[in-house]
Amino acid sequence: MADFHQNGNIAQFHDLRQRPNDELVYELETFAQSRKISLILPSLYSELEGDALPAILDELSKVSYLHRIVIGLDQADEEQFRHAREFFSRLPQDHVVLWNDSPRMKALQTRLDEQGLAPKEAGKGKNVWTCIGYLLACADTAVMAIHDCDIVTYKREMLDRLLYPVANPNFPYQLSKGFYPRIGDGKLNGRVTRLLVSPLLIALQKVLGQRDYIDYLRSFRYPLSGEFAMRTGMLPDLRIPSDWGLEIGVLSEAWRNLAPHAVAQVEISDAYDHKHQTLSPEDANAGLNRMSTDICKAIYRKLAADGTVFTHNTFRTLKATYYRVALDLLEFYAADAVMNGLKLDRHSEEASIEMFAENIVRAGQIFLENPHETPFIPNWSRVHAADPQLIEDFKQAAAEDDAEFGMSLFSS
């Protein structure tokens, strides 16, 4: 993907294969002397049993400029938490494993529930929100990155490149977003981005007319990538979606809170693959079926917040327009795959498009029928205003969990 194209909306950082990565690392180490850099890893316990995460830790162990690594651990019992602490102990950096299902953490959840401020559902959004709260309680990080724990092609250069635009104090960028081609096992992957998000944004522009927000989202080459880096000054006011709309939601928050020229995307890999979700056409609450609905709702909500009026007829027209655009793009993808010697299952791809088309309308119906839905977890500024002591109690609960179940792996 070595090119130098700029779309004019957000800054694009390319890998032009001209500079040794060691030079980037040296600069990051220099920046980190005065601007501490931390990493958030939202993880399911099941990911500790796979092949990707051990390899990720091997790569992260080589990263010298990280001040702290915060691991959010979901779906773990006490024995599994003990194992997780041992599993992550190979990291040489200051690090902490937040046991999100511990009795102490659940007590804090109840405390938030009583004030109507608790996350409504478990998942990646809640995990990331919790890790952000811990970082804010530490109050010693200037730059933060997030990436997933299921990247099977992970190299530490991905993190180096992701962080550089926001870690460099001479740059104005507040948020950087990773992009890459999704290729694995000789196949063209990235179905939701290719077959839902890209054609949906084109269809929305055809149906609604020109919208700056749509132009902004279309500027991202891989809007659903799970790799972000940002300056921590924006964290207290960041509203984290509680559903599968996390990635679109964070981009939307950047659109709301930042000038477009404070946002960048950066090429972090030319060989990226991770765990694939199942399509789950028979279950609207699972897999890509649920994910596609939540993504559509996230986009509709933001457009509505900017003044767009939606009706049932809008969504019916949008479905028809999307379907035609998606089939046209599928032709492009199929030819591209042939030229590059990759496999592409046309039947499976068209079945995905048909399901996504149905979910465009389904998401619209949910949106219209639930006008009072609160899709975001309250930001940490609001939590602090309602309960100024909670963020310190949260940090203390993490410390007590760590102390009770073994020697402390992180400093205060």
Automatic annotation (TrEMBL):
The protein's name: Glycosyl transferase
Alphabetized Gene3D superfamilies for the sequence: Spore Coat Polysaccharide Biosynthesis Protein SpsA, Chain A
This protein's record includes keyword Transferase: yes
Protein keywords: Transferase
Stored InterPro entries: Nucleotide-diphossugar_trans
One of the record's GO molecular function terms: transferase activity
